Amino acid sequence: MPDQSVLEQASELTRAGEPFALATVVWRQGPSSSQQGSRAIITAAGELRGWIGGACAEPAVLREAREVISSGVPRLLLLGEPGQFGGTVPDGMRVVPISCQSEGALEVYVEPVVPAPHLVIVGRSPMAQALDSMASALGWRTTLVAGEEFTAADADERSMVVVATQGHGDEEALEQAVLARPGYLGLVGSRRRGAAVLGYLAERGLDSGQLDRVRVPAGLDLGRTTHQEIAVAILAELVQLRASGGLAAAWQPPAAREPHESPAEAVDPVCGMTVAADSSGRPLTHDGQTYYFCSARCRREFETDPAAHARKESRC
User: Fold this and answer.
1) Cα–Cα distance, 65 to 39 (Å, whole number)
2) Do 154 and 190 contact (CB within 8 A), yes or no?
3) Predicted confidence (pLDDT) per residue in 109-168, tens digit
4) What is the rounded distance in angstroms from the CA atom of residue 202 to the CA atom of residue 305?
5) Is 0.70 topped by the overall pTM?
6) Looking at the domain that runs over 118-252, which CATH code has it been given?
7) Cβ 61 vs Cβ 28: under 8 Å
8) pLDDT per residue over 250-267, tens digit each?
9) Residue 44: DSSP 8-state
10) Which of 22, 21, 34 is nearest to 79 (CA)?
11) How many CA atoms lie within 13 A of 108 on its CB side?
């Protein structure tokens, strides 16, 4: 995949609010199938788009990228045999041993790309429009939708939803927002009005745990204010919750909240490289145990004296 296509896909994922990692080859030692400046995207589901290296480098980069997406912290990787780098490896770099027949090596920078917060504002009041403008100025992704047009499909667990219909179908809009289970849900209105709306939804059988999470009134309590100041109060509450970790569900990427099941891995008994424990790992069963290999060469070497390599693995 050309680098331009990789960057275009990165832009598409960012607009869609999908977290991913961007891997860039910053140095190579030939022979290597990769080139300096090569880029690839690794999605939260572990899909690689682009080219970062051959069969030796790719599994290591995928494994490291999943951890980068989860932690949100970038990594600079040195892929190769530790002896290739001697004592010159700077602090902060991670050496990932790989055994490659080409004896090449790579330095790869893997950075997380976490999407901007998604704020859904339900309503068309002056306050809703002011909040939309202010949140956009912070670089947040905002969706401004009329109450009668809003559905649970307009938000998800990573969204923050503010219902500002202000008497025009509050119950229907809030019911849809509750069904979306967003990371934050606030209703603009008085406590008395909020109690009436929540009581109505409770009678309709909505989950009480989700209703208890609705903030009424939304925003910091600034007393009697203008609609612009109400928007400031709501935005201030969201920023405050973010800084304190109170918006963890809305701000963390899916990989950090609900780690996907990582593919099974095994250690090549010949070279010590971590490989996929599936059909791509060239499985071979010896004495009732299945071994996996990074290459046909390692598999053939194991077959020449399986007992010796099996003993070596057991000692490790």
Assistant:
1) 13
2) no
3) 999 998 888 999 999 989 999 999 999 999 899 999 999 999 999 998 889 999 999 889
4) 70
5) no
6) 3.40.50.720
7) no
8) 434 444 444 445 567 888
9) T
10) 34
11) 30
Instruction: Output the six-digit token pair for 216.
Output: 């009424």
The DSSP code sequence of 213-248 is T-BSS-S----S--HHHHHHHHHHHHHHHHHHTTTH
Per-domain boundaries in the chain: 3-113, 118-252, 265-315
Do residues 147 and 168 lie in contact, with contact meaning Cβ atoms separated by under 8 Å?
A: yes
Give the whole-angstrom CA distance, residue 80 versus residue 70. 24
Residue 168 has what DSSP assignment?
Answer: S
**Which residue bears the tokens 């490790």?**
316
Q: What angle do CA 146, 152, 153 make, to 5 degrees?
A: 95
The helix or strand, by DSSP H or E, that contains position 306, with its residue range, turns out to be helix 306-315
Prior bond to 269 cis, omega within 30? no
Distance CA(294)–CA(266), nearest Å, equals 10
d(CA 122, CA 314): 61
